Amino acid sequence: MKVLSSLQKLGKALMTPVACMPAAALLLRLDNKNIQVIVGTLADPIVSRMKKIMN
Low-confidence residues of the chain, pLDDT below 50? Predict the structure, then answer.
């Protein structure tokens, strides 16, 4: 039984990196410029509202 529980822990530890691989591949596929455009597009309304509030 102890061997099986050790194997289960090992299996759980290996599942997390495998589950993250698709997201990591997508991030690697995007250039730095693409990421800046996406983040800038998403952050622009928030930043403009903050500027209005602070003025």
Answer: none
